[in-house]
Task: inverse folding
């Protein structure tokens, strides 16, 4: 029972949250295309990208599940999740430290609109709008596909659960986005991304170790204490680096 | 072909942002695997914590490097 609840949560929660973040980012570009060049090309572009992502999901998802034995599978999936999670965590830490700017959808939207209004329009179907909206959905959707394949295929969780998480996020962001016809800048993207990075690092560490034959204390509950540990790493690193940054700036100011 | 190359580049960039972070994380996993397979460490959850510690170290070091680079750029006088 506990295993199946964990399996469900593992597959659906990170996929849903990460998909919301990615869909919000894609929506910023799609709404910019829709408002400046028309919705037809933008929506056909999104549809085409979803088709490509569906094909990738069908090919690689089934291939990953069917062809690898359980321990190797845990190591491979865990390693990919570790790499993906640490990449997001590094970005989150640097954002909260102030080294790279926080992601701002409103700013991204204005810059996209500015660029699109200066791009000449061709006669007939707007291939530029199609390509820009499609590319945005494809690139952001690749991250979602990756998570659906890895998290959906791990443990007792299954693809349908992970896919449901991604589809629910797509419908949620799409319906809210369409009702306001603006970028969804009030979604706390940076916080959500940091949260997902901690979850991915947790699952990655857990599965790699399981793949090596480690028996975690308290079984699947190890995910809870690993989550707390990774959260402490993220928060602690932000605090330490912020103070290092400030003290270095103070020293530099005094010196000059 | 260009579209496929772009997709391949996007897939690689999903897991590799700071190249050194990815290499160090793979190195950490490799070290734990080698230590486990030659029997130096056992399969208690201490091994899991060793993996966690090495991975956490790679993130901290990678972020510290980024902060150092940022400070160096900030403190370099612009002509």
Result:
């Amino acid at each position: 029972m506990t295993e199946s609840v964990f399996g469900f949560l593992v597959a659906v929660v990170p996929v849903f949250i990460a998909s919301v973040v990615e869909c919000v980012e894609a929506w910023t570009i799609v709404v910019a295309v829709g408002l400046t060049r028309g919705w037809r090309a933008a929506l056909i572009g999104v549809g085409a990208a979803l088709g490509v992502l569906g094909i990738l999901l069908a090919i690689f998802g089934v291939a990953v599940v069917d062809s690898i034995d359980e321990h190797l599978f845990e190591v491979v999936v865990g390693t990919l999740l570790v790499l993906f999670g640490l990449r997001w965590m590094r970005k989150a830490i640097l954002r909260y430290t102030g080294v790279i700017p926080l992601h701002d959808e409103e700013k991204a939207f204005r810059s996209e609109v500015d660029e699109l209004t200066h791009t000449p329009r061709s006669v007939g179907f707007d291939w530029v709008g199609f390509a820009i909206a499609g590319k945005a959905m494809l690139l952001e959707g690749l991250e979602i596909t990756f998570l659906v394949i890895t998290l959906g295929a791990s443990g007792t969780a299954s693809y349908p659960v992970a896919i449901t998480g991604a589809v629910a996020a797509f419908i949620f962001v799409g319906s809210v986005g369409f009702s306001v016809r603006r970028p969804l800048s009030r979604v706390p993207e940076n916080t959500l991304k940091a949260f997902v990075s901690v979850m991915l690092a947790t699952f990655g560490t857990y599965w790699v170790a399981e793949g090596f034959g480690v028996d975690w204390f308290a079984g699947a509950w190890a995910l809870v204490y690993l989550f707390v540990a990774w959260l402490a790493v993220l928060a602690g690193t932000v605090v330490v680096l912020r103070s290092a940054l400030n003290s270095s700036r103070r020293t530099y100011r005094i010196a000059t | 072909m260009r579209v496929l190359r772009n997709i391949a580049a996007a897939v690689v960039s999903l897991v590799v942002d700071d190249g050194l972070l990815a290499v160090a994380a793979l190195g950490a996993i490799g070290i734990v695997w080698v230590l486990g397979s030659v029997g130096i460490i056992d399969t208690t959850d201490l091994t899991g914590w060793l993996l966690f510690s090495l991975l956490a170290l790679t993130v901290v070091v990678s972020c510290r490097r980024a902060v150092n680079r940022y400070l160096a750029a900030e403190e370099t006088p612009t002509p």
Notes: Chain B has a mean pLDDT of 80. Residues 6 and 12 of chain B are 10 Å apart (CA to CA). The two ends of chain B are 43 Å apart (CA to CA). Chain B touches chain A through 37 residues (CB under 8 Å).
